[in-house]
Amino acid sequence: MSAQAVHTIPNLNGAVTGIALLKDRLYFSHRGIAHLALLLLPTFQSLGYIDCYCPTCRNQSGILQCNCYQKANQQVAELQHIVACNIKNCIYVALQKLHVGNYICKVALDQNNTLSSWSVAGIPWGLSITSSHNVFAAFCNVNSLHEYTPDGQLIREINLQPAGISNVWYCVQLSNDQFGVTHHRPKNQFSIVSSDGQLVKSYPGNAREMNWPQGIAVDERGRILVADQTNNRILVMDSKTLEAYPLQLPTDSELKAPYCIHFDAASRRLYIGEWNASRIVCCQL
């Protein structure tokens, strides 16, 4: 697989931690900034921001009731990752509020961009949407995957202790009972686990070992794409063998710590958010 550069969005406000596409809008989040930015496609014109920093201080209509974000050393929030659900017309956000707690926030894309949230025990990092339109979350500090209804009810927890892996960052459903995860212990790796937490298989290392793997996407043919952050590449994996090769990018599109990725099947475009260069690279596959 190879790619052609379509557009690069440079000089963003810090490392890009999440990308989501819904209808004709591209949403993304930055490290250390508690709002979503959005762009109009295909022109990439800026459409402003959606604040997500204070879901617990909004009423049921999503109206902000306080200004705690501006208060020094109080309730500073950071968005870890985002994912869009076309069926529910909403964005889900993994949100960490320092000194307060961790949440998964739901932004209903209505006239008011209504906010709601639910508290979670661990640190939610990578989010994805399941085939049942539920929210799937990887918790990097509690060694488990959680599945929630669109309104935040926990319906399944997959303990990864049987698989012998931990420090999980991103997750995606591959089939009814198999899930792909990137993890950093006992080594930097992409693995497939079953619904009962057993290890199914791991990337065999045929294209060199991974170094701090992060975001995951799956294309329309079932091929798995993984952001291999510190190796500055996107790996393309066979879904059965997990053998991989680096995605061929144009020579003028050298990646700088790719962190989060989003594949749009309709346009066959891959959006790559970078940690070091603070930009989004859009490629045509």
Give the SSE layout.
Elements: E1 4-9, E2 16-22, E3 25-30, E4 35-40, E5 45-51, E6 77-85, E7 90-97, E8 101-108, E9 114-120, E10 124-129, E11 135-139, E12 144-148, E13 154-159, E14 166-173, E15 178-185, E16 189-194, E17 199-202, E18 213-218, E19 224-228, E20 233-237, E21 244-246, E22 258-264, E23 269-274, E24 280-284
Antiparallel strand pairs: 1-24, 2-3, 3-4, 4-5, 6-7, 7-8, 8-9, 10-11, 11-12, 12-13, 14-15, 15-16, 16-17, 18-19, 19-20, 20-21, 22-23, 23-24
Structural write-up:
With 285 residues, the protein is mainly beta. The protein has a single domain, classed as 6 Propeller (Neuraminidase), CATH 2.120.10.30. It has no helices and 24 strands. It starts with a strand and ends with a strand. Mean pLDDT is 88; it is low at 58-75.
Provide a quick synopsis of the model.
This protein has 285 residues and is mostly beta strands. The chain has strands spanning 4-9, 16-22, 25-30, 35-40, 45-51, 77-85, 90-97, 101-108, 114-120, 124-129, 135-139, 144-148, 154-159, 166-173, 178-185, 189-194, 199-202, 213-218, 224-228, 233-237, 244-246, 258-264, 269-274, 280-284. It has a single domain (4-284), classed as 6 Propeller (Neuraminidase), CATH 2.120.10.
